[in-house]
Amino acid sequence: EPVSDRLTVSGLDAWYGTAHVLFGLDLTVEGGRTLAVLGRNGAGKTTLLRSIARGMVTTTGEVRHGSHRLDRMRPDQAARSGVQLVPEDRRILTSLSVEENLLLGHRACGGREKRSVAEMVEMFPLLENLLSRRGFALSGGEQQLVAIARAMMASPTLLLLDEPSEGLAPRIVQEVGEGLRAIKERYAVTVVLAEQNVNFAMQNVDDVCVIDDGRIAFQGGGAEFQARPEIRDRYLKV
Ligand code: ATP
Predict the structure, then answer these.
(1) ipTM of the predicted assembly exceeds 0.90
(2) Looking at ligand 1, which residue's alpha carbon is closest to its atom 2?
(3) How far apart are CA 108 and CA 45, in angstroms?
(4) What are phi and psi of 103, to 5 degrees?
(5) Which of the four, 28, 56, 149, 229, has the lowest number of CB atoms within 10 Å?
């Protein structure tokens, strides 16, 4: 059984300039588990992921991943230490082929063993026929698969996914979900997944946290979340 490291966020505050958007977040994800971060538009989900990966936001408080103090790192250092963020806009390089995009993931390997393109094709079979295609010719769903696979090429120990199901056709949402489950089975990786699609989240995670207006409104197991529909009604209904 693969073993992976716990993520602990303590007393996290976050700002964009003078705009204060996260307030005293405390959060734990046990190594190897998958946490869904749910919340309405603007609740602070993306900001939490950026705070962990150290990009584009100012924070105070602690972010620990295993023995690493992520809050003391720059984004490139966090990446080399094993943190990979797949952003909402995916950032596929349009003039490169899918295979070239995947190989870019190796740049963040740090000292960890590199993963191969063939391993990624095993997890996401749809990639097989896309390897020579240029980024600009991919559908949104294909881009999402490539972005997740590229992150996995860096052998991450902590994978952060920002709204992986957003805007995707149902068939490809299923493929993304299957790929995630394959990743979990095969590799020691802790996953944090920001989502608006509660059903997709519930099919693919162990634990749930709900953010409302920059504060944690709920944290618990998936079953506990499902058993308390009032949480969904209060914090997630538009
Ligand atoms: P979404 O689903 O829209 O991405 P979210 O839950 O991920 O929502 P965040 O993107 O984390 O929310 O935004 C949290 C708050 O921070 C919002 O009020 C948003 O307007 C604000 N915000 C986000 N990015 C910036 C930025 N670059 N500069 C200033 N404020 C920002």
Answers:
(1) yes
(2) 41
(3) 24
(4) -65, -25
(5) 229
Q: Could you tell me the pTM of the whole model?
A: 0.95
User: Residue 111: pLDDT band by 50, 70, 90 thresholds?
Assistant: confident
* Nearest-angstrom CA–CA distance, 176 and 171: 9
Which residues of 47-162 form beta strands (DSSP E)? 58-65, 68-69, 83-86, 158-162
The protein residue whose alpha carbon is closest to atom 17 in ligand 1 is 42
The closest alpha carbon to 30, from 61, 66, 60, 54, belongs to 66
User: Taking CB atoms and a 6 Å cutoff, what residues make up the pocket around ligand 1?
Assistant: 16, 19, 21, 39, 41-47
- Could you tell me the two tokens for 73? 């790192």
Per-residue pLDDT tens digits for 170-220: 888 999 999 999 999 899 899 999 999 999 999 999 999 999 999 999 999
* Burial class of 236 by CB neighbour count within 10 A (0 to 12, 13 to 18, 19+): middle
Q: What is the β-pairing status of strands 215-221 and 207-212? A: antiparallel
Token pair belonging to 208: 């749930």
- The residue among 67, 57, 85 whose CA lies nearest residue 147 is 85
